[in-house]
Structure prediction request, 655 residues.
Amino acid sequence: MTALERIHASTGSESRRRKQTVLVVEDEVIVAEDLRASLEEAGYRVSAVAYSRASALENVARERPDLILLDIMLAGGNNGIEVAETIRARDDVPVVYLTAYSDDTLIQQAKETAPYGFLLKPFNERELHATVEMALYRHQLEEALRRNEARFRRLFEDAPLPYHSLDGEGRLLAVNQAWLDTLGYTRDEVIGRPMAEFMVAEDLPILAERFPRFKEEGRVTDVEYHLRRRDGKAITISLNGMISKDVEGEFQRTHCIFQDVTERKRREEAAVKMRNLESLGLLAGGIAHDFNNLLTGIFGNVELAESLLEEGDARAATCLREAKEIAERARDLTLELLTFSSGGAPVRRAGDLAPLLRGAAAFVVDGGNIDCNLDIDDALWPAYFDADQINQVIYNLLINAVEAMDGSGTVTLGAENISVEEGSPLPLASGQYVRITIADDGCGIPPNRMGKIFDPYFTDKETNETRGAGLGLAVCHSVLQRHGGYIDVESEVGVGTTFHLYIPVAPPEANAPHAAPAATKASTSTAAHGRILVMDDEEMIQEISHEMLTHVGHAVEVVAEGGEALAAYQRARAAGDPFDIVILDLTIRGGMGGEETLKRLRELDPQVRAVVMSGYSNDPIMADYQRYGFTGALAKPFTMAALRKTVESLLLGNP
Prediction:
């Protein structure tokens, strides 16, 4: 049954419960009585026959008839149209005109009162009954529609969620009470105004970008932006909406509801902040723990060496060697921190991952009871990666796998080509990747730990206190993210754990493939000596650099920042004793750093030879120093051998 049929059925059943009442307003007695008889014979009740305007209006007020048959011209010059206008404005009772005239002007005036029909005299009973029935039905239908409209308007006005409707230009056509209450306006203050006037300025690009798409696509879901209340406060909303179209399928208006999610967002941000503080506390505590252990070893060995030297004991050299090895471990921890931090941008080049993976497989099986299944695609695509960082990731994961198997089991190490399509569930841009798989058959990761395994220094108190505590997986996650890749994990307790690494394939314009990193030995064969200028804002670095370089025969001057470096360089040139090399720290607190200082030095001397020095070893300038005008790079912490090799290779003309 259609909506129209349901309305007809309900109005029809109502009419059967009682007789429909008709008022006849006709000044010709014979016609009036004929109408009464015909209507009563058809089953209607005639409330009265009125012969004048006054009696007609009195009967309408008293009887409230269902229909009025009204002569368009009454005796005494009374105009039935004026009577109809009064009834329409006061009583809302449907009117059917009776007329003996078909004058166009009169008919046009009558139309303006919205009559429910015309009966042109003379008429027969069939015409009368059909016109009366259609007029009553039409009025009942309109009443039902008005009731439904009123009901829906109440639902609209009383709806708990704010609603608004926009036209094609983004102007407000309608709002409900919840919308007004949420933003503090009155209806007259908002209707017709652009929605943009109620948005914070920073979010206007969202409207400019999304509104045309909304009109075209027909729907919008969970769009967040900020609205400005009348009192000036901003609220965060989440908006959903759809559009309606006209009969020709063209955009007509939007229908949108929104939720005020300000408090929810505040709680979420507070929770994230708390989680970040907890992670920061865990990270700081873990770093402090690791560095305190390392410093204890360094201090202990140095103090023991001092004591042994006073006694002339040869074991002092062993103590110093151990202190140096511990310091190297501290340097490795610093490199992990740099990789994890904003300073860890990868220096990527095109390369083959297969040699790196084969070397890792050899590491797994060396000196233990671990087997390694190697499964590398013979036609592996060249990847785009920082060899040192990816090597670190793979070794971290392999160490975890060995620990998970308690030193006995099988590790599967594989690599394959994979294409990621648009719409893939993987959080990756569409394109080609090399997927590395590292799987073990160890103890597995409990479900309640899976969400935290990439947190720095996360550990489970039920396991060995030292196992899994560190930056390992956090660094792995950070490295893959900075590569534009992804790391995923799946695990089952008692079965094992599998990590998948997705590394982007090298673009055509990338550098030529390179091999995995190999250890290099410092050159020791040189007899070159020169004048060196060292710029660093740390007094400790100034002193140790001065001591190291003078120990091997160089003349050294140290300064704290760029202005001093420029002055020293100018003085040396003016004195006829210029510096052969300048070593510039990249970051100077409160002063001119290495990059700007070199630009100024090159204005004085285009042939200046400069070495960039930084504790941020993965800084882009460190990785591509020649592009920035430097002739060498020195990463902190550095050994005396590394410092000597860097300086003397430049003096010998071998940058």
Remarks:
- The longest helix spans residues 262-310.
